[in-house]
Specification:
about 270 residues; alpha/beta; 6 strands
Length: about 270
């Protein structure tokens, strides 16, 4: 069957989240270097390691893994949205988590200063919020597809945090007929239930949809689980490993036009 709808992931597919995080870390770590003399690159490494390790100790870890909230999002998220009780736990944990992560990073970098750790935690939140980058071709592909296909945004994460990211790029919102955030549901990608819910909104069957995303274990596996067409955006040209093999692989979103044409032509045979 021909494609009737295209489903997009958000982070590092349309929104350049990785760049936002990297620049926020660099700004804060350079400030720490000028303030306390710590090595900026070492501090970033130590904070990232501390954040990951601490994140995994919380009772909320299984929930955040299921919904798709990573440790670095917890370094700037408030978690005030979402109905699940675990979001209230995250809301309470987050302030101490942020300070502890930055303080531990400072300590491992040779600086014992909890007050500075708290300051850096607050500064990171501001720096991350000041950045909202999209990829060069993001709007071009959405403009090209919008007249011909239904568009749905399917993103993992906390409802308030993902909405905040979208509010930072408000011009992108009108392109989508529907926006589905995993935090409003029991499970995140690659759960078949989330994909089936998305298909029900669009009124399509699996073979009438194309899922586009950068993560093999969520976007691509999820589409495979329900029999939906899928395209892996591999901008860094990473070599495939493991058992997940995407139907289509692209390095630029504009290549989706050719992917859709090939799927539609095959459907006519």
């Amino acid at each position: 069957m021909a494609i009737r709808a295209v489903l997009f992931d958000l982070d590092d597919t349309l929104l350049w989240d990785e760049r936002c995080v990297e620049e926020a870390f660099a700004a804060v770590c350079n400030y720490a270097h000028s303030t306390a003399g710590v090595d900026a690159e070492q501090l970033e490494t130590e904070v990232r390691n501390a954040a990951r390790a601490l994140y995994e100790t919380y009772a909320t870890y299984a929930f955040t893994t299921n919904i798709g909230i990573n440790p670095f999002e917890a370094l700037w998220g408030h978690f005030t949205g979402g109905e699940h009780e675990q979001f209230r736990s995250l809301q309470q944990l987050a302030p101490a988590y942020r300070t502890a992560s930055w303080t531990a990073g400072l300590r491992e970098s040779g600086c014992e200063d909890e007050a500075l750790g708290a300051e850096l935690a607050e500064r990171f939140m501001r720096e991350r919020r000041s950045r909202s980058y999209v990829y060069e071709e993001t709007y071009d592909i959405l403009r090209a597809l919008k007249p011909h296909y239904q568009l749905l945004l399917l993103t993992n994460g906390a409802p308030d945090l993902q909405q905040e990211k979208l509010d930072g790029i408000p011009d992108i919102i009108p392109f989508f007929d529907h926006i589905v955030i995993s935090g409003h549901h029991p499970e995140g990608k690659p759960s078949p239930s989330l994909f089936r819910y998305s298909m029900s909104l669009l009124g399509i069957g699996p073979h009438e949809g194309l899922m586009v995303g950068d993560k093999l274990t969520t976007d691509i596996l999820g589409a495979q689980n329900v029999g939906m067409h899928h395209a892996w955006i591999n901008r860094k040209r990473v070599t495939l490993t493991g058992n997940i093999r995407p139907e289509h692989e692209i390095t630029n979103l504009m290549e989706l036009i050719g992917v859709i044409e090939s799927i539609n032509q095959a459907a006519l045979k």
